[in-house]
Amino acid sequence: MRRFHLLPIPPLQPYIDRLWGWESAPGETIALPTLLPGAGAELYFHYRRPFRHAGAAGDDGAALCSAPHAPAHLLSLRTVPLALATMAEVGFIAVRFRSGMLACFTPVPAAELHDRPRDVADVWGAPGRQCAAGVARADTHAERLTLIQQFLLRQLRPERADPLVEAAVDILYRSHGGVRIEPLADRLHLGRRQLERRVLAWTGQTPAALRRLCRFHHTVRALLLAPGAPGLDTALRHGYFDQAHFIHDFRALAHTTPQRFLRQASGTTHFYNPPRAGDGTIQAP
């Protein structure tokens, strides 16, 4: 399987962490992961077969699959996991938005975009549909990347941003949810209720819910990028009080236990990408 990670063009870098993608080899079948809730959003452009949702097992024990997702779709999971079916002919480019930055690209309220795949045409109308069709027709990665980034530049509205909310979301994300809400509001010279209203309007979540997701996201990411690391030590290092706290959050957000999820994940892939290097570049996968 071929994988890549690229920084976006400079005008998009304040808003988008990276563009990345996978492409299966001829005849290769890939066990795709279960996607878990997190604090970000991902926009997928498929130029081969789109993802399918793997449902409950049928009578023969095999996972039943839903209809395919749209060829280009947005995923912003917040409260539910999404299991993807094993498949061949994988080929996609994904846009990873920085936490809280999706709202700079669409006027659709953030809460309306949560927890289910949204067709790019439902979010961006005809321009989204045209971009998806162009990506599907393109012959090279260079063409696809140009089409996607030019589309995003045309949708970008920096004036929509709320700098204080951006700062709040960034602090929560970088601290792995380790900053309490009251001190965060004080740091930004806002009242707690004012901060809660503004973060909810911008992200579709309260600061407390976002804090929880940041902690969960960073913990799961660390566990999957370092499979041999002790689970409890990793959870405690990322802000959980104890094992019960970690298991409670994991059950609520992943709908399973950490042990069961990690056991199943060991036989599949995951979409947690490598970190940026100290100079801001992206390490090769």
TrEMBL record:
PROSITE patterns: HTH_ARAC_FAMILY_2 (PS01124). InterPro entries: AraC_XylS_family_regulators, DUF6597, Homeodomain-like_sf, HTH_AraC. Residues 162-264 form the HTH araC/xylS-type domain. It comes from the Bacteria. Residues 265-285 are annotated as: Disordered. Keywords: DNA-binding, Transcription, Transcription regulation. Pfam families: DUF6597, HTH_18. One of its GO terms (molecular function) is DNA-binding transcription factor activity. Gene3D superfamilies: Homeodomain-like. This is AraC family transcriptional regulator. It comes from Rugamonas brunnea. The lineage of its organism: Bacteria, Pseudomonadati, Pseudomonadota, Betaproteobacteria, Burkholderiales.
